[in-house]
Design brief:
Order of helices and strands: HHHHHHHH
Strand content: under 5%
Helix content: 55-70%
Number of strands: 0
C-alpha cells in the first residue's frame, strides 16, 4: 500500500529541511525552498516512484535555478542609514554669515574695519595697524570691542569667538 502525500510530508519534512538548510545556508530561504519542493512533489505525486529521491533532486535543481536567476538579476543596493541622514547643504552657514554681515554694519567704522580685515581677510595685526595708520594696541582693542559688540548683537552666549570660527563666517 502506497503512503499518501500527507504522510510523506509529515515523515520527510525534518530531513528535507536539514538538506534545504545545508543547500541554502539560511533558515528563511530553506523554508521557502522546502515549501516549493513539497508543492512540486504534490503536483506529481501520482507519477513519482521514489518521493524522497524526487524531492532531493527537485531541491538541488531549485537551488541551482535560484543561483542562476540571482546572477541574471540586477544587484540590489541595500538601504543603509546614510539614506536617512540629512546632508548639509550650507544653508545654515549662509544664514549665519548673512546675520554676521548684517550685524557688522551696526559696528562703528574702525571696529568694523579691524574685524573684517583680521577675521575675513586674515590680515595680521601689524598689517592692519599699518593700513589703518593706528598702533597695534589700537587694532587689538578695536578687535576685542568689535567682537564683544558682535556677541551682544548676535546673542552669542559663549565668551570667546575664536579666529578660526570667524574665518569660517
Amino acid at each position: 500500500m502506497q503512503e499518501t502525500f500527507e504522510e510523506f510530508a509529515a515523515a520527510s519534512s525534518s530531513g528535507l529541511m536539514r538538506t534545504a538548510l545545508l543547500l541554502t545556508g539560511d533558515r528563511a530561504a530553506a523554508e521557502d525552498l522546502l515549501q516549493e519542493v513539497l508543492e512540486r512533489v504534490y503536483v506529481r505525486w501520482r507519477s513519482v516512484q521514489d518521493p524522497q529521491a524526487y524531492a532531493r533532486t527537485a531541491m538541488s535543481r531549485a537551488v541551482t535555478d535560484r543561483w542562476r536567476r540571482a546572477g541574471r538579476r540586477p544587484r540590489e543596493v541595500p538601504l543603509h542609514d546614510w539614506h536617512e541622514r540629512a546632508v548639509p547643504d550650507g544653508a545654515a552657514d549662509r544664514a549665519v554669515r548673512a546675520d554676521v554681515v548684517a550685524q557688522l554694519r551696526r559696528l562703528p567704522p574702525r571696529q568694523r574695519a579691524v574685524i573684517v580685515l583680521r577675521y575675513f581677510e586674515d590680515w595680521s595685526e601689524e598689517r592692519i595697524a599699518d593700513e589703518l595708520d593706528v598702533s597695534r594696541g589700537t587694532v587689538k582693542s578695536q578687535a576685542a570691542k568689535g567682537l564683544a559688540r558682535l556677541r551682544e548683537l548676535m546673542d552669542v552666549d559663549r565668551q570667546d569667538v575664536d579666529e578660526e570660527e570667524m574665518s569660517r563666517w
